[in-house]
Input
Amino acid sequence: MKNNNDITFPVNEIFDSIDGEGITQGALTTFIRLTGCNLNCSYCDTKYALTSDEKTIMSIDKIVDRVLSTGYSRVTITGGEPLLQNNLPELINELIKNNITVNIETNGSLDISRYLIPGVIITMDYKCLSSNMESKMLLSNLELLRETDVLKFVIEEKDFDTVRKILKNYNIKSHIFLNPIFGKIKPYMLVDFLKDLHKENIDTKNIRVGLQIHKIIWDPDKRGV
Ligand code: SF4
Output
């Protein structure tokens, strides 16, 4: 049987900050950014994490030691696309054993069912038209999300109809966020869109407009924040 020193991950960066979006927005979090992604979204702001040029191979023990050295109670595992790592459940189990709440950011194209466990929040994107990746979405994920999870649409105006279609056709139990593609749409337009959804009798009680506050606090292109 492998021990935690034998199981390794391609780590792009680990840093301490606040969660920039979602239900834990503003809370202190240690980010584990893993390298590699199966998509290539038009608006990707972490292109540096897509290829293996920038990676350090780290064992579970090394990653957990790094997380515990700061002592925050939350970790966000992001990428790239973290679900590409077959051994991700082992890393998550070790973090949970150390009383860390784990938020996994995933792109919506890979099966989330292995990760629907207590102590884990799934923050899943639905990639719309403007990403050029909508055809890669795994629709069966949508109704698997729990009340404690998050479905996130990162959108501009031409994506509104896709959001409508998904909200009308699927019974989504999770929190839902409408986030602007940075620089492509004024955030107030998302508020107007949310009002329109309400007028169209779509259930809006779990839907919120979100902003990526790390792009407001720091330079939008700054890394490791
Ligand atoms: S899924 Fe995320 S990391 Fe991958 S290309 Fe799209 S935005 Fe970039």
User: Anything to note?
Assistant: Residues 138 and 170 are 13 Å apart (CA to CA). The chain has a mean pLDDT of 94. Residues 37, 39-41, 44, 46, 50, 79-81, 107 surround iron/sulfur cluster (CB under 6 Å).
